[in-house]
Design brief:
Blueprint: H1 2-35, H2 43-50, H3 54-61, H4 64-83, H5 91-108, H6 110-118, H7 125-147, H8 154-176, H9 182-203
Helix pairs in contact: 1-4, 1-6, 3-4, 4-5, 4-6, 4-7, 5-6, 5-7, 5-9, 6-8, 7-8, 8-9
Amino acid sequence: MPQQRAATGPRVRGTERSAARRAELIAIGRKLFADTSYDALSMDDIARQAHVAKGLIYYYFQSKRGYYLAIIQDSVAGLVTFAASSSELPAVDRVHRTIDSYLRYAEHHQAAYRTIVSGGVGFDAEVHAIRDSVREAIIDTIAAGAYGRSGISPLARMGLLSWVCSVEGAVLDWIDRPELPRDTMRELLVKTLGGALRAVEELDPAHPAPQPARRDA
């Protein structure tokens, strides 16, 4: 038994070190790809700027594309977790908290946010699918707060999608030119969401806007 414990300990520590090293490379890559387009960075450039051997990147990610996709997937996981961290709150508060969390993530993880929203490799079906997954996660979170469920009609989904897409562009501009305080930006997005919810209700009465979004509230 003692020999088994001795064999397990180093293996666990090795796995932890490997995970930490991989996470470190992803953090470095987020900054690199935020400042330089995908096509402009070679694996030699990446290895040199990361101060690691090129073989190490191949070891963890197999290719430059694998490295880039791992960066996007890690960024998406962080944003979705951050934005959806308010499930214990009442529905209306959850919407406000989701938008505030989204803005905080973009503000404090600007390189990761740019990677998620704008990518940098032109049209790439897999990269776009990853970006679309975060849109759907945000739509589900907003729908759960506004309607009490994530299963909504195609029209309601399109209304929320149009709002999410406009938010992406506005937030990209906001982190580049942070002239508005985050609280003001949040309230602006909440109010434009209210407009989207009222438009959905007008065209699909089965999805009534929640009381705070109504003009007569």
